[in-house]
Amino acid sequence: AQSVTQLGSHVSVSEGALVLLRCNYSSSVPPYLFWYVQYPNQGLQLLLKYTSAATLVKGINGFEAEFKKSETSFHLTKPSAHMSDAAEYFCAVSDRRGKLIFGQGTELSVKP
Amino acid sequence: DTGVSQNPRHKITKRGQNVTFRCDPISEHNRLYWYRQTLGQGPEFLTYFQNEAQLEKSRLLSDRFSAERPKGSFSTLEIQRTEQGDSAMYLCASSLVASDDTQYFGPGTRLTVL
Fold first, then answer.
1. Of A23, A88, B22, B62, which is most buried with the most CB atoms under 10 A?
2. Which residues of A touch B (CB under 8 A)?
3. Which tens digit of pLDDT belongs to each residue from B9-33?
4. Number of Cβ pairs < 8 A linking chain A and chain B
């Protein structure tokens, strides 16, 4: 069975500071991993995905994530936060049969 | 590519009424998924279709819920005899199974049951 744990339901950073959102997964098969972003009252937008190619994955808006099998982690980072990054971020794992299993989400706040 | 669309965007109904939501996937996508998201939580899988076939249903999908995808294009999700606990955002996503199965989400339908 697959599961995802996002450490920290709320993260606050200053504008220009490093963003680090943590995600650990459990999977009985080699995982496909995803990060999605959700702005208020909107659907989910794909930021990036890992599908067993390069372990360092670059996404949109300057975000990237590194797949670490030994740590079962897929943390999301961005070197310099912008006010527009304030949103809810979800890590998800695919069971490869169709469905996504999501974490609880991390709300990112960016202070001026 | 116009993306996944969902209608209506918002629905307010009284307890006991039936509601129906529609999802139009990205045109060439053969898989269509429904998820439910309650406040402060991540989306939870409800069901998915590959073409017309409904391949999996979650235990969350009680007998009051039914989903269809009659021609392998758009899908509808119906909730009968709504309850206050059904209040949530209902999200639809689509994917192309021949690729890496990345799911693209629509804007969601927010249901409020009074």
1. A23
2. 4, 32, 34, 36, 41-46, 49, 51, 90, 92, 94, 96-105
3. 999 999 999 999 999 999 989 999 9
4. 61
pLDDT tens-place string over residues A31-73: 899 999 999 878 899 999 998 778 899 999 999 999 999 999 9
Q: Which residue of B has its CA nearest to A103?
A: B42
Query: pLDDT value at position B97?
Result: 79
Query: What are the residue ranges in chain B where pLDDT is below 50?
Result: none
Q: Which strand (E) or helix (H) includes residue A48?
A: strand A44-50
Cβ pair B92, B34 in contact under 8 A: yes
Q: Which of B48, B50, B107 sits opposite A99 (nearest CB)?
A: B48
Task: Answer yes or no: are the C-beta atoms of A24 and A66 closer than 8 Å.
Answer: no
- Adjacent-strand bridge partners of A23: A6
What share of chain A has pLDDT > 70, as a percent?
100
- Contact list in A for residue B57 (CB cut-off 8 A) is none
Nearest CA in chain B to A39: B107
